[in-house]
C-alpha cells in the first residue's frame, strides 16, 4: 500500500497542513508530535489521559469535529511520551465520515501514514468507510486492495457502499476483484452482490452468484436466502422465489417483504393482497417497508382511495409514518388534505415531507398552500439546496419577489442558487447570490 498514489497524495496533504479556514487561528497541529515509534501506554502518573480520551470520544459522537481535533492536538502536545492514537483517531475518522468532512479525514489518513498505522485492521476499516461515505470510491477501493489482512470485512464495506450508492456494476467488479486477490466471500458479500444483481435485473449474473453460494455452502444462511428470494422475485421468476421461500427453514419480516415486493413489481395485485392477509394470519408484525410496498402497488394501479385507506390503517396499527409513506399520501390526496395530514401527524414532519407538499403545490400552481408549506420548510433550517430551490420557485410563481430574494433564513446561507422561474410562459435562469 505504501507505493500507491493514494498514500503519496495523503502524505502530501499531511505535510502541507491543508486545514479548513476556520482552523487557521487554532490549528490542530497533529503533525507536531508525530513519531514513527509504536505507541505504548503512558505511566499511571498521567491522570489527564483517560479524561482527554473520553472527551475526544464524546465530542466525536456529538459531531463536534473541531473540538475533538483540538483535544487530540492537546493530547499529542501534552507530553513527549508516546500515547495511544488508534482509538482517538478512529473516533475522529468516524466523526469525519458522519459529517462527510473529506479534507479532515484525508489529513487524519496522512497522520496515520506518518505514524506507520495505515495497515492496522481497525484503521483500514475506518478508512474504507470514510472514503466510501464521502463518495471517494476509488480511494476506498485502493485502501481495501492494500489491506494486508486478507479477510472479507473491508471488501464487504466497499461492496455494500457501492450498492447503497446505486453503483451496482462497480459492486460486481469489486466482487470479482476480491476473488482475484484470493479473498473468500462470506454471507454478507453474497447478500450485497445478489441485491446488486436484482436491482439491475441481471438474472444471468444472479444465477452465477447463486451457484457460487451453493459451492460455498451458504445457501442456508438467512441473509443470503432473503437476497435470493428478492433477486428471483424482482426478475419475474416468482415460481422460483416462492419455492425458495417455502424451503427456508427460518423466515423473518425481510423474507416476507421480499416476496411481497416481487408480487407488486410484477403487477400481481391479487397475490400481493392474499400474501398480506397470510402475513397477518401467521402473526407477522408488519413494518414500514411492508406498508410502503403495498401502498405503492395501489398507486401504480391509480387506486388513490385504497392507498389512503392503507395509510390510515397503517396509523391505526401503530406503525411509524416515514417520509416515503407521507409522500405517497401526498400524491394520493388533495393538497388541502395533504396539508392537514402533515399538521395532524403524531410525529414531527421532516423537511422531506414538507418539500413533497411544496413540490406538489408548485406542480398544481396552488400558491396559497405552497407558501404556507414553504414557511414550514424554512423553519426546519435545512441546508438542502434543492429545498431552497423549491421554496424560491413557489414564491416566484406567486409574484412575491421580495420573498424570493430575502426569505426567512436565506440570509444565513451564502451560496449561489440557480432558480428556474416560469415567467410569461418562458423559462428564465436566475442566479441568486444571497448575502
From TrEMBL:
PANTHER family: PENTATRICOPEPTIDE REPEAT-CONTAINING PROTEIN, REPEAT (PPR-LIKE) SUPERFAMILY PROTEIN, PUTATIVE-RELATED. PPR repeats lie at residues 151-185, 221-251, 252-286, 287-321. InterPro entries: E_motif, PPR_At4g14850-like_plant, PPR_rpt, TPR-like_helical_dom_sf. Gene3D superfamilies: Tetratricopeptide repeat domain. It comes from Colocasia esculenta (Wild taro). GO terms for biological process: RNA modification. It comes from the Eukaryota. Keywords: Repeat. This is Pentatricopeptide repeat-containing protein.
Amino acid at each position: 500500500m505504501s507505493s500507491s498514489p493514494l498514500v503519496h497524495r495523503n502524505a502530501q496533504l499531511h505535510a502541507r497542513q491543508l486545514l479548513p479556514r476556520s482552523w487557521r487561528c487554532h490549528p490542530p497541529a497533529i503533525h507536531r508530535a508525530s513519531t514513527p515509534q509504536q505507541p505504548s501506554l503512558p505511566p499511571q502518573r498521567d491522570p489527564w489521559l483517560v479524561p482527554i480520551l473520553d472527551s475526544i470520544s464524546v465530542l466525536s459522537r456529538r459531531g463536534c469535529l473541531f473540538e475533538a481535533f483540538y483535544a487530540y492536538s492537546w493530547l499529542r502536545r501534552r507530553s513527549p511520551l508516546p500515547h495511544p492514537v488508534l482509538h482517538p483517531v478512529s473516533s475522529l475518522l468516524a466523526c469525519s465520515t458522519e459529517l462527510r468532512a473529506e479534507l479532515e479525514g484525508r489529513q487524519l489518513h496522512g497522520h496515520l501514514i506518518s505514524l506507520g498505522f495505515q495497515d492496522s485492521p481497525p484503521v483500514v476499516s475506518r478508512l474504507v468507510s470514510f472514503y466510501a461515505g464521502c463518495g471517494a470510491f476509488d480511494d476506498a477501493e485502493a485502501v481495501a486492495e492494500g489491506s494486508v489482512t486478507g479477510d472479507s470485512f473491508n471488501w464487504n464495506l466497499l461492496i455494500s457502499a457501492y450498492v447503497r450508492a446505486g453503483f451496482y456494476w462497480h459492486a460486481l467488479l469489486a466482487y470479482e476483484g476480491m476473488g482475484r486477490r484470493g479473498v473468500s466471500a462470506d454471507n454478507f458479500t453474497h447478500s450485497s452482490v445478489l441485491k446488486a444483481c436484482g436491482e439491475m435485473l441481471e438474472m444471468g449474473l444472479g444465477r452465477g452468484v447463486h451457484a457460487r453460494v451453493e459451492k460455498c455452502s451458504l445457501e442456508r444462511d438467512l441473509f443470503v436466502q432473503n437476497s435470493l428470494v428478492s433477486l428471483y422475485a424482482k426478475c419475474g421468476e416468482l415460481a422460483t422465489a416462492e419455492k425458495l421461500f417455502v424451503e427456508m427453514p427460518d423466515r423473518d419480516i425481510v423474507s416476507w417483504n421480499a416476496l411481497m415486493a416481487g408480487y407488486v413489481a410484477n403487477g400481481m395485485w391479487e397475490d400481493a393482497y392474499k400474501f398480506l392477509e397470510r402475513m397477518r394470519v401467521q402473526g407477522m408484525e408488519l413494518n414500514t417497508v411492508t406498508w410502503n410496498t403495498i401502498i405503492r402497488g395501489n398507486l401504480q394501479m391509480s387506486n388513490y382511495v385504497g392507498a389512503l385507506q392503507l395509510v390510515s390503517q397503517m396509523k391505526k396499527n401503530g406503525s411509524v409514518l416515514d417520509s416515503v409513506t407521507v409522500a405517497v399520501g401526498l400524491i394520493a390526496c388533495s393538497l388541502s388534505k395533504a396539508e392537514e395530514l402533515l399538521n395532524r401527524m403524531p410525529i414531527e414532519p421532516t423537511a422531506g415531507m414538507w418539500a413533497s407538499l411544496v413540490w406538489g403545490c408548485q406542480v398544481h400552481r396552488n400558491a396559497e398552500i405552497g407558501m404556507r408549506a414553504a414557511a414550514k420548510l424554512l423553519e426546519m433550517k435545512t441546508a438542502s439546496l434543492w429545498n431552497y430551490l423549491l421554496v424560491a420557485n413557489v414564491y416566484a410563481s406567486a409574484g412575491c419577489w421580495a420573498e424570493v430574494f430575502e426569505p426567512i433564513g436565506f440570509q444565513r446561507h451564502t451560496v449561489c442558487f440557480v432558480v428556474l422561474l416560469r415567467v410569461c410562459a418562458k423559462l428564465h435562469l436566475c442566479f441568486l447570490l444571497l448575502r
